Amino acid sequence: MRDNGVVNVGPEPLTFHDVIEVARNGAAVRLTDDAVAAMSAARQRVDELAESPVPVYGISTGFGALATRHIDPALRTQLQRSLVRSHAAGSGPEVETEVVRALMLLRLRTLASGHTGIRPNTAKTLAALLSAGVTPIVHEYGSLGCSGDLAPLAHVALTLMGEGVVRDQDGKIQPAGEALKQAHIEPVELAAKEGLALINGTDGMLGMLVLAIADLTRLVRTADVSAAMSVEALLGTDRVFAPELQALRPHPGQAQSAANMTKILQNSGIMASHRDPEACTRVQDAYSLRCAPQVAGAARDTIAHASTVAGWELASAVDNPAVLADGRVESNGNFHGAPIAYVLDFLAVVAADLASMSERRTDRFLDVARNHGLPPFLADDPGVDSGHMIAQYTQAAIVSEMKRLAVPASVDSIPSSAMQEDHVSMGWSAARKLRRSIDGLTRVLAVEVLTAARALDLRAPLEPAPATAAVVRALRETVPAPGPDRFLAPEIDCAVRLVADGGVVAAAESVTGLLD
Q: Which CDD domains does the entry link to (predicted)?
């Protein structure tokens, strides 16, 4: 819940909006009084068990395959430090700040649930890091997506101890101890169970899922806009998008996509120019035009399913062992990432298929046998100029990579921890490749928009629909109208930015109203 620019974190679930505000927009956080009360009650039970001579996993024992050893009370502080230091074993490129902030927020919410046994002060220190913009450096490799995102979360826990490396609020890399001192944050000396509570969650993969859903929700609307532009510029028909035809196959996403395309193409002079059935010799449009709502609609429905799973996970308190309301501390398997891993993989398939269809529409513009009167490759002077020939190559290269990225990570498992963790989810890996797929889809749709806009201009004096014309005008603010060949890469980058920041959808919606 947002309050005066601050996201309040309590025992209740966070929303998608909360995650995006903190991860992407740098919102500060505050633990609620209810959260502090819940944590205090659970901590009291953990302290009682820590004093007991009976070994309790995660409180007075080692971890994983070493859980059989009862740890002397004098060594338990060292146990927590050793756990965090040894598990902060990531490698490879640095993970994006928005991902780490999402991970931190989601771990904080689980701590605030009162089911982990963390001390309130330790949770408050994590909240202070987020509010101060101090972001631990987390690496690409290290999580198997089971027992949570152990290595990524351990790098965060290491920062709480004043160790490791971070980026400060200005993005500067420096030792964690120095950054904490500058932010007036005291490092924490972890007590019994706290190390485990800080690292045993699915927070990294969940954070990336929430961010991916937000991105794909925007991109699937963009796909409706780009497909409509292509149908129009390729002299296709919008009759196939009629609601009575869509109702024959009542998938909700399909109906939404078809309705969007119908709205976008309304009052098109280009479409009107070939509506006379006696003048038009076309029988049916190609699948990449005619079936756009079926593909984008199925993508919508898959995103909706992923959103349901993410909602369940946002309401979860993932830790092992868990402190129950009746005071019991019980081991469990809730840290397994399979539910998240599956939908992350589903979304990579969605992204690849949307991109594949977009590339096919772009290719039709460039072939004189299929583009219905446009110049070869949309070139100004074919032969001298190459037009958008190589822009389609770029699309094709991205789509090919996206098909490889669509191979599911969640079907793999490499046993670890001396066979204690003998089946893992690979959810972190599924999330990482999905982020690359989303970047690829953004670029592929941008090339289609760029190409379709050029084709619409080349249909002059016929007038495009007001909505598609608005998209062309938005693009023309940074990309000139058709002419002789120019340095094309910067123009593609301009189109990518227009897609990524929602400008394509916003331009269409300035005419149509909000798209579904």
A: PAL-HAL (cd00332)
Residue 432 confidence (pLDDT): 97
Q: Are 176 and 163 in contact (CB under 8 A)?
A: yes
Euclidean distance between CA atoms 64 and 73, whole angstroms: 19
Check if CATH label 1.10.579.10 holds for domain 209-510. no
Whether residue 174 contacts residue 168, with contact meaning beta carbons closer than 8 Å, is answered with yes
- Global confidence as pTM: 0.94
**Mutual orientation of helices 488-500 and 503-512 as an angle, nearest 10°?**
60
CATH class of 6-200: mainly alpha
What's the mean pLDDT when you consider all of the chain? 93
Strand order in the sheet with 165-167: 135-136, 165-167, 173-175
Q: Is the pLDDT of residue 69 over 70?
A: no
Dist. CA 144–CA 131, nearest whole Å: 29
Structure-block tokens of residue 379: 């070139």
Q: Residue 53: is the preceding peptide bond cis (ω within 30°)?
A: no
For residue 58, pLDDT beyond 90:
no
Using CA atoms, how far residue 368 sits from 92, 252, 373, in Å, is 46, 36, 7
Three-state SS for 213-282 is HHHHHHHHHHHHHHHHHHHHHCCCCCHHHCHHHHCCCCCHHHHHHHHHHHHHCCCCHHHHCCCCCCCCCC
Is residue 1 very low, low, confident or very high in pLDDT (cuts 50, 70, 90)? very low
Q: Which residue, 341, 340, 339, 347, is CA-closest to 402?
A: 347
Question: Known catalytic residue: 393?
Answer: no
Burial 2-15 (b: 16+ CB within 10 A, else e): eeeeebbbbbbebe
**Which candidate, 202, 217, 151, places its Cα nearest to that of 313?**
202
Nearest C-alpha neighbor of 24 from the set 203, 183, 210? 210
What is the tens place of the pLDDT at every residue in 107-121? Answer: 999 999 999 999 999
Strands 139-141 and 91-94: antiparallel
- Token look-up 């004096």 returns 461
Q: How far is CA 309 from CA 152, 315, 337, 429, in A?
A: 22, 10, 12, 18
Domain edges within the chain: 6-200, 209-510
Question: At 247, which amino acid appears?
Answer: A
Task: Establish how many alpha carbons lie within 13 A of residue 514's alpha carbon, considering only the half-sphere containing its beta carbon.
Answer: 1
Q: Which of 57, 141, 342, 393 is catalytic?
A: 57
- On the question of a common fold for 6-200 and 209-510, the answer reads no
Percent of the chain with pLDDT over 70: 95
Q: pLDDT tens digit string along 123-171?
A: 999 999 999 999 999 999 999 888 789 999 999 999 999 999 999 999 9
Q: Where are the alpha helices (DSSP H) in 113-202?
A: 120-132, 150-160, 176-182, 194-199
**Residue of 225, 230, 224 lying closest to 456 (CA atoms):** 230
pLDDT in tens, 183-226: 999 999 999 889 989 999 999 999 999 999 999 999 999 999 99
